[in-house]
Amino acid sequence: MGDETTTAITTVMEELRTLESFGPKAVDLLLKVAREELTRFPSLTSDPASTHEDYAYDFFLDRGKALTTAAQLQAEDDDALGRMIRRWLRNWLVDLHARSAVGSLRDRLEKRLERDGRFDRAPAQHFWRLTDGAAQAGAADPAALAAVARRVHVTYYPEPPGGTRRAQLGRSGELEALLEELLRTAKGSLHIATLVHVVANRFPHILDPLTVSTEEETADEVPACAPSPLEEILGDEDQQHFETLSQEVFDALSAEERSLVLVLDDPKAAANMLGLGRSATALRIRSLKSKLIEISGDEMTAPEVVRRVLARCQGELRRATEPVAEDGPGLVPSVKDGGQNQ
Amino acid sequence: MTKTHPGKRARLLELASQTKTPTAVRFGAMKASDVDSPDFDVRKNCLWTARWSGSTILLLIIHESSDPQKVLAAPVTIEPGLQDQESVVVDASANDLGVPVTVWLGITREVPIQTLERPLGGLPPETLETASRASRSHPLPDAEHAIQQLTSTSAEQRAEMEDILDRWIEDLQPLPSETSEQVTTQGPIQGKPSITLKQVMDALHVPQRMAMNIVRGNYQLSPGEARQLALHIGSSPDALSSIAEPLPNELLLELQKPRWRLLVRSEAERLKTDEPAARLSVAREAFGLAARQSGRDEDMWRQRLRTIALGRLSGGTSEGR
Fold first, then answer.
1. Cβ pair A72, B24 in contact under 8 A
2. What is the rounded CA–CA span in Å between residue B123 and residue B302?
3. How many angstroms separate the CA of residue A64 from the nearest CA in chain B?
4. Which of B114, B147, B282 has the most A C-beta neighbours within 10 Å, making it the best mutation to test the interface with A?
5. Three-state SS sequence of B81-143
């Protein structure tokens, strides 16, 4: 109901209201939060030249005015202010990371384009063409390019349990094959940002902190670490292989994810099942969708694999709910009714 | 743990001290004179802070609702970069906060008026229309950026606001006359005793929940209890049977308006109770105020509440108490 009669601490809020700006107390709170939050972003702290004070400063330069306004209007006490600062800062850092992740994906793709004889720079800056293809800008219909990206197989190696190695995108030659197909589809040259966009969309986890490496150097070592030869299975239409693949996907899902798969398109049912609010549910759904997109293979196999994964999940749900009925209540005395239901 | 660098801290402090937000301060704490301020009328195109159950969000009033307890409103956020396909960004120059704000039109809801707290100024007419035309012509600010934003933080922000609004809507109690069938066929409410929660709690030494049931007329007093209560408030036990008289809807609706929120809050603090209970207590008091029966009901209740509010909130004494 309306008001909780708790004694909330408001020293920082009082300073904020008096000064109409962040004073020493609020600044120290921001610095503390920055130090804590940055531990989540190793990619940002790897450079010792940038400290948490520097990030806090850049953050405030960018969002300080909006934050100061929002804090005065919405934060009721110091706890709420701390939560607000943490959330704003984290979103800003995620954003910063995404930009740098996109930046490094771009560097990586450009390096591959440069090294491979099939590709060449187009006269227009930042555009790439096929050596044997047209130089003028191609038709970059995003839907068509996205469809190609799903069709061309690029091996995705999820992070193994235990986190010994980061998830891996693409074996030797696979990313190049994808880039070649994209340029053929466009029938002309494409801007590097378009290529980055398509690849990032196909593998959404690339932009999540700490997930995917596109380092070629380590890519060659991967097969030894990843016992399942996914690419051999893909391209082979044999039912047995679909079965194996869907089993692997199924095995990769937690018990909760298996139930969640069944209500993936129904946030309300998902929220009921998880017993969580919409926000927490949205988070789970997003992460599960990313996972499914990435491990179900390319356009040819994905629908069939996902269909089989669904069937497995449904089967499991049935098995989980049926045994009681099969055994019959008369055979096994139930603990709950004190054994009276004979 | 790294120690904070004094020079860098000073640099940040300097930057922060230059980042003043006087516009936000203008909409600072609630005060007694708010009861007479036209800003507190709930009007279309106005921004509000809304607070209930420990959550605070900003709202833009879109339209009045057919339900007098509610108003059609969309949540508003200030954090840059958060938006979805249906939201529109209103430029800093077009609102009184001095920063760009995002209006989440996709989660427009019938929000209980009782959650509204402070008015934050209005948007010029047609602002929304202009803003949505602008965002349609530039669908995505930056394609790469959008991948990240549309899939994660914005979706979470949106879901969280939906949760809060859903909770607020569930929290809203229907007006008493909508729930109970009892229709009083009594004459004019001349000389009806009116009892506040506090009086019942003090007189009968009962917990607040019980007192609320008594005040609402949901609990039949024993003759002894009726005598005790009557003694306490200086009324006759017979008159107390009319406690069951339901409070008029016009009064209860009026009290849900943000204009009276400070009064209700101070009553809640005084009684150590929550806002709905405090509102009932204030309503009883207004109901019992010996005032001349004149004018439209709405105006009458407003006048009575104003008397109570000014008496209590401006710290002075009032003939009403």
1. yes
2. 27
3. 7
4. B147
5. CCCCCCCEEECHHHCCCCCCEEECHHHCEEEEHHHEEEEEEECCCCHHHHHHHHHHHCCCCCH
Closest chain A C-alpha to B24 CA, distance in angstroms: 6
Taking contacts as CB-CB distances below 8 angstroms, the residues of chain A near B171 are: 1
- For the ranges A190-194, A313-317, B147-151, the lowest mean pLDDT is seen at B147-151
DSSP string, A164-194: SS-EEE--TTHHHHHHHHHHHHHTSBEEHHH
Provide the shortest C-alpha distance from residue B163 to chain A (in Å). 6
Least Cα separation, residue B223 to chain A (angstroms):
34
A224 touches chain B (CB under 8 A): no
Contact of B236 with B250, CB cutoff 8 Å: no
Q: Looking at the complex, report in whole angstroms how far the Cα of residue B235 sits from the nearest Cα belonging to chain A.
A: 32
Question: Which DSSP string do the residues of A255-322 spell out, in sequence order?
Answer: HHHHHHHTTTT-HHHHHHHHT--HHHHHHHHHHHHHHHHHHS-STTTHHHHHHHHHHHHHHHHHHHHS
Q: Which residue of B has its CA nearest to A24?
A: B13
Average pLDDT value for residue range A303-319: 76
pLDDT at residue A228 in the model: 37
**Which positions 161-220 of A are in contact with B (Cβ < 8 Å)?**
193, 196-197, 200-201, 204, 207
Contacts of B32 (CB under 8 A, 6+ apart): B262, B309, B310, B313, B314
Residue A63 sits at the chain B interface (C-beta within 8 Å): yes
Is the separation of the CB atoms in A98 and B153 below 8 Å? Answer: no
Q: Would you say the pTM of this structure is higher than 0.95?
A: no
Average pLDDT value for residue range B62-89: 92
Nearest chain A residue (CA) to B160: A279
Closest CA to A147 of A288, A301, A304, A298: A298
CB atoms within 10 A of CB A135: 15
Question: Which residue, A14, A17, A52, is CA-closest to B9?
Answer: A52
Choose the closest CB to A204 out of B56, B151, B277.
B151
* Closest Cα in chain A to B266: A3
SS3 A235: coil
- Tokens representing A65 are 């005015």
- Pairing state between β A127-130 and A119-121: antiparallel
Taking an 8 Å cut-off on Cβ atoms, the answer to whether A53 and B8 are in contact is yes
Whether A3 has a pLDDT exceeding 90, the answer reads no
Q: Tell me, rounded to whole angstroms, the distance of Cα A115 from its chain centroid.
A: 29
